[in-house]
Design brief:
Number of domains: 2
Strand order of the largest sheet: 1-2-3-4-6-5
Order of helices and strands: HHHHHHEEEEEEH
Number of helices: 7
Strand content: 15-25%
Number of strands: 6
CATH topology of the largest domain: Aspartate Aminotransferase, domain 1
CATH class of the largest domain: Alpha Beta
Structural class: alpha+beta
Oligomer: single chain
Shape: globular
Distance between the termini: 10 Å
Amino acid sequence: MTFQAYLDTIKARTGLGPDDFRTLATERGLLEPGTKTGAITEWLKTEYGLGPGHAMAIVGVLGMHKGADLSAGDKVAAQFAGAKAKWQLTYDQLLQLVEPWGDIHVAPTNTYVSILKGQAKFAVVATTADRFDIGIKLPGEPVNDRFTASGTWNSMVTHRVRLADGDAIDSTLVEWLKKAYDRA
């Protein structure tokens, strides 16, 4: 689901758009410095029945999450800072492999980078000091030891591939990504 699709769904469910939520949040003091994201998401859940993804879309338009003022480039750079810097080359390699397929864009958040075909997400990348995770959106595809269900790791994708130190992006992984790209 694209960010705009989240906002469209919220508008359909609640009758409210981003400006309406900004006004309501201001009236409740939820845009004051120091307000935690959890306070806003709880308000959106309780009063409007929004789930976590939809609530975070509203948090995003309110600009209340850490790093909201960062550029996309700064968000990507932050993904590969410090102990996660070793994964920068793997990320660059992944993009070099998928970019020739066509209309590829990245949409970084503070915790992962979405990879999109046009506006449709087909993969995500997240890193830790020890692991490079690739989430792939392939509903209906079977799982195996390497191509596992994403579970609660990231609800925007269906499968997860974990690369550890020394693991490389291989042809099987590229095939899964291409299949997800083609379906997007």
